[in-house]
């Protein structure tokens, strides 16, 4: 970088305003990307696209999450900081009323230590945001602007102090809380913002010194490895800072705060606390002068260091690999597989993935270490008591193991396409199908993430008081669920990834990440439920869901290299399976909250209706937003009631014959118990069996599941499969007659092409069965 003065070079304020405007515009564009309509050339009716393949415009991203998550994060972190301030006061200056009272010296030093910890955490989080490992370096083109070198550096520091989301989340709530307890009350937000800015300036200087010095002295590979270390340190430091505000979790940090030297009150964080708490105007003005003087001196020294770092320019820096000596020749194996791959029985794709993972330490840490730190930190700092109860209850231990694996899969298997980046097209050149490549990766990540529960269960075998069938069931449920969710993560990653996107924050669609985490949360129900039959049913549903999502992802593979076009959205098997799982879990949660042990007719009707209504509303919203084709209609082509009623009577007759055949069999007592359950529901059974069950169950099992199966496998395979799934979700004693009902309703739906017909068939069947059960009781 040349140090000469440019003629007519922009002054500092103009340069700073320009950089701030560019940064804010970039952030705004990232948040709103995908909201604007696609170009006319990307529409399905466009002739250019129609010659290649049919498709729909790419799905729009929602910015609602962005505008709601940040305020919630500020509020949540502000609550933690408030607890931290109160806890520090109780530890360092116990007793007495202290609001609007001048802080003691020990308390001031403790608050300075808290601000220093938050400042350090914000600095590490900013450096670990990912910009350090990007191949492009914005300083390389900023030096081409008509701005003097020193002015550019000052403008860069000022810009980074204004546009610093991590710094604002960490430091702003703390300064506001300190200002509030110093007596500023409702003016505390403005006063806290002004007090936080000097610390944000120092954070901007530290960030600039770090990324400039590291880029100029380290190669790309070493930068990525260092970035992995910084990512780990940022999470650890953030949890240490948060621990002071969590009940019973901040003993370590409070002990350090109590031992801090008094001179910490004269550092910038200490002066910020003293300025906010000072009562006299003259003393406050003198402290402000001292604070600004210290910050100015540190900034001036930092800019001098930066100028010295950039004395030879920036082109030789950046994250590009420098020239290296050619590697020593390596003997190539005679066959297509490497020797290591043959020893480990890995495919070429899996061996390639492991090789890339071992070279990219940053990706390795993000996939396997960061999930452990995040989940482990939440367990240790949380107030739920899971960290201790998991060693007594195998179901809780299994939930933690599966949660760790699921979170790791969201950062690894889900990112399968994003990890390829601009080289994604190379996967189409492999001597195997793209689908097989993705399957190999799913198997690899499923096996790797099994290490989390494997280690936890190994420890649990020695520390748990009782290792019996409950422990074995938890182990089996977890070990079967993780490989299934590896395939689910890869399948959803096909829809939720933008590997060709230039900006890192836009490579992942948040709604698909939340969908995956929501589905993983649903599987926790299968892990913790004490009902063995429900556990088996939910595991079968999850397995079918993985096949359905994989089938849906297969349709998306030909469109991956064109991010503006997607396959036409149609009702699929996965939609019905997701709806069935959501309906199943919501109903169980409502019953667990309000029902207790005894199941009343009113409670069952309420839980059934609420779960069905929520599931129906959610699915209709998703379909409306994605403009899905083939959404089931209420009225069909043929709405005459004769055929549906006859089908319902026929299925009901089969059920009555089945109940009569149970007389004299070992299953008679169980049948009577089921019959008595229906009778004890009283009159509530009428709206439940004749209205709620036909409406919601037919929408899910005929409209969605049968409709999705029908599109791929034909009428009768779809009818038999959906009927079998429908029967599995009922008590074992009623599987046979309910299977017949499922076939009858599928027949009615096929003839009518509307949901009204199978609903009528279902209601007729339930009326016959209830009448027969009442007569037999």
Structure description:
This protein is 70% helix and 1% strand. It is mostly helical and 777 residues long. Among the domains are: 69-309, no CATH class; 343-563, no CATH class. α27 (685-713) packs antiparallel against α28 (715-728). The N and C termini lie far apart (93 Å).
Strand percentage lies at under 5%
Number of strands: 2
User: Helix share of residues?
Assistant: 55-70%
Mean pLDDT, nearest integer?
78
Strand sequence of the main sheet, in spatial order? Answer: 1-2
In one word, what is the shape?
A: elongated
Radius of gyration: 32 Å
What does the largest sheet look like? 2 strands, antiparallel
Q: Please identify the structural class as seen in this structure.
A: mainly alpha
Please report the number of helical segments.
30
Low-pLDDT stretches:
1-8, 34-62, 316-343
What is the end-to-end distance?
A: 93 Å
């Amino acid at each position: 970088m040349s140090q000469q003065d440019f003629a007519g070079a922009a002054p500092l304020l103009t340069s700073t305003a320009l950089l701030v405007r560019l940064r804010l515009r970039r952030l705004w564009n990232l948040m709103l990307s995908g909201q604007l309509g696609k170009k006319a050339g990307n529409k399905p009716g466009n002739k250019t696209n129609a010659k290649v393949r049919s498709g729909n415009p790419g799905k729009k991203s929602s910015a609602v999450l962005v505008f709601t998550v940040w305020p919630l994060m500020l509020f949540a972190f502000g609550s933690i900081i408030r607890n931290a301030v109160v806890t520090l006061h109780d530890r360092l200056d116990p007793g007495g009323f202290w609001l609007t009272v001048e802080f003691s010296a020990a308390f001031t030093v403790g608050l300075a230590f808290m601000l220093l910890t938050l400042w350090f955490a914000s600095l590490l989080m900013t450096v670990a945001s990912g910009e350090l490992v990007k191949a492009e370096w914005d300083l390389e083109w900023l030096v081409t602007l008509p701005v003097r070198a020193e002015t550019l550096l000052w403008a860069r520091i000022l810009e980074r102090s204004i546009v610093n989301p991590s710094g604002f989340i960490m430091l702003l709530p703390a300064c506001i809380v300190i200002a509030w307890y110093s007596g500023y009350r409702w003016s505390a937000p403005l006063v806290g913002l002004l007090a936080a800015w000097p610390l944000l300036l120092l954070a901007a200087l530290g960030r600039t010194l770090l990324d400039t010095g590291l880029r100029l002295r380290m190669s790309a590979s070493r930068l990525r490895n260092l970035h992995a270390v910084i990512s780990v340190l940022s999470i650890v430091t953030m949890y240490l800072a948060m621990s002071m505000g969590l009940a019973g979790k901040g003993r370590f940090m409070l002990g350090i705060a109590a031992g801090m030297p008094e001179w910490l009150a004269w550092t910038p964080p200490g002066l910020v606390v003293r300025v906010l708490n000072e009562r006299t105007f003259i003393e406050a003005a003198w402290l402000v002068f001292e604070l600004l003087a210290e910050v100015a001196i540190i900034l001036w020294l930092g800019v001098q260091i930066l100028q010295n770092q950039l004395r030879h320019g920036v082109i030789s820096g950046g994250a590009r690999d420098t020239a290296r000596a050619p590697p020593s020749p390596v003997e190539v194996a005679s066959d297509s597989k490497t020797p290591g791959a043959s020893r480990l029985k890995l495919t070429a794709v899996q061996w390639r993935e492991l090789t890339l993972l071992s070279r990219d330490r940053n990706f390795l840490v993000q996939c396997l270490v960061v999930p452990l730190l995040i989940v482990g930190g939440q367990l240790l700092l949380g107030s739920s008591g899971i960290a201790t109860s998991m060693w007594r209850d195998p179901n809780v231990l299994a939930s933690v193991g599966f949660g760790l694996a699921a979170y790791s899969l969201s950062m690894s298997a889900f990112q399968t396409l994003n990890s390829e980046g601009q080289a994604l097209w190379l996967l189409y050149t492999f001597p195997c199908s793209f689908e097989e490549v993705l399957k190999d990766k799913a198997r690899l990540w499923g096996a790797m993430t099994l290490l989390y529960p494997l280690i936890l269960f190994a420890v649990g075998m020695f520390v748990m008081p009782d290792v019996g069938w409950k422990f074995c069931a938890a182990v089996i449920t977890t070990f079967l669920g993780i490989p299934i969710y590896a395939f689910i993560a890869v399948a959803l990653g096909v829809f939720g990834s933008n590997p060709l996107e230039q900006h890192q924050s836009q490579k992942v669609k948040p709604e698909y990440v939340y969908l995956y985490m929501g589905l993983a949360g649903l599987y926790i129900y299968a892990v913790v439920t004490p009902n063995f039959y429900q556990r088996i049913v939910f595991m079968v549903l999850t397995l079918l869901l993985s096949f359905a999502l994989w089938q849906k992802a297969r349709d998306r593979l030909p469109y991956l290299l064109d991010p503006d076009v997607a396959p036409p959205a149609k009702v699929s098997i996965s939609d019905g399976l997701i709806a069935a799982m959501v309906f199943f879990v919501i109903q169980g949660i409502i019953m667990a909250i309000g029902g207790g042990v005894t199941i009343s007719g009113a409670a069952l009707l309420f839980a059934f209706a609420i779960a069905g209504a929520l599931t129906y509303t959610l699915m209709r919203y998703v379909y409306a937003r994605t403009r899905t084709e083939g959404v089931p209609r209420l009225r069909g082509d043929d709405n005459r009631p004769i055929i549906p009623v006859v089908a319902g009577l026929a299925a009901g007759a089969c059920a009555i014959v089945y109940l009569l055949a149970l007389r004299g069999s070992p299953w008679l007592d169980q049948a009577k118990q089921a019959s008595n359950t229906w009778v004890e529901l009283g009159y509530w059974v009428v709206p439940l069996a004749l209205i709620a069950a036909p409406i919601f169950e037919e929408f899910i099992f005929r409209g969605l599941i049968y409709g999705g199966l029908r599109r791929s496998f034909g009428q009768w395979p779809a009818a038999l499969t959906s009927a079998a799934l429908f029967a599995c979700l009922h008590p074992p004693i009623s599987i046979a007659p309910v299977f017949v009902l499922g076939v009858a309703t599928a027949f009615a739906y096929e003839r009518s092409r509307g949901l009204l017909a199978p609903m009528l068939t279902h209601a007729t069947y339930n009326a016959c069965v209830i009448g027969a059960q009442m007569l037999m009781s």
